[in-house]
Amino acid sequence: MEATRKKILEDLQEKYTAIGQNADKHLSGLRYAKPMTYWDYIHTDALLNLQIQRTTLPDEMVFIMYHQINELLFKMILWEIEQVAFHENLTTHFFAERLYRISRYFDMLSSSFEIMQEGMEVEQYMKFRDTLTPASGFQSAQYRMIEFASTELINLIDNRFRLTIDRDTPFMHAYDHLYWQAAGKDHKTGEKSTLLQLFEERYLDDFIVFMKTYNTLNLWSKFKSLPEADKADVDLRNAMRHYDHTVNIRWVMAHYNAANKYLESGEETAEATGGSDWKKYMHPRYQRRIFFPDLWSEEELENWGINNLEGYK
Length: 313
Hints:
With about 325 residues, this protein is mainly α. It folds into two domains: about 1-35; about 55-300, Methane Monooxygenase Hydroxylase, Chain G, domain 1 (Up-down Bundle), CATH 1.20.58. It contains 16 helices and no strands. The radius of gyration is 23 Å and the shape is globular.
């Protein structure tokens, strides 16, 4: 016990000396520190006071908390991607292990749509949703960053414009031709909706910086930079395919089916709160979002979003 205590004190001395600090002062301060509690560590009080309703309808609380949980999971996903992106000596094991972590987060996101699909009364939702206009899940900046960090920009460009864009294209021009831009613009005039204008006022500068940062550090670029033997690693390739399918088909379709229940519940099909053509925007067979296109066969690519793809697990 005495030897262990001595080693701990030596390690602390070394730690604080390395940063120009006096270890004795830090140890002295510990005498007056409060004991750690769960609620202080998790900041429970702050977390539980972040749910502020705009209406008196009880199911709005479900809607708010559900989306806040989504954003927390998105943060976890970005945290894992960052570890791969900035890893100096990346191995196939580390790469695959992080991808499976991310896929499990998206598995949780996919299955959790049942909370929205079955956990709110349609009548209540159709009332409180009117108070949310023009806000939309479209405006999740973290989800957009997950896309930027997962694949090369060309794979996020609207299919109609991909032949006109390459690595020499200015980032702002590429941004204006991302697939989801179509959901925020009038397809006849090209005018941006309030939904998109507000989104860009808040996040555009951040997006451009993030796009530049992950231009060569995204998951797809990191994979392609590996030695040929590593790129042939079966476990890594399966992890890549699993992630691609989970995000761009399974999760998207779970979202689509939940939206479909509420937006088509009345006599007429409702539009999304942001005013987008949500069916063509969301369904993978229209947008064909594919992070790692070279890892899929021609038949799998042709049937993307139409049939369930096998062999990705």
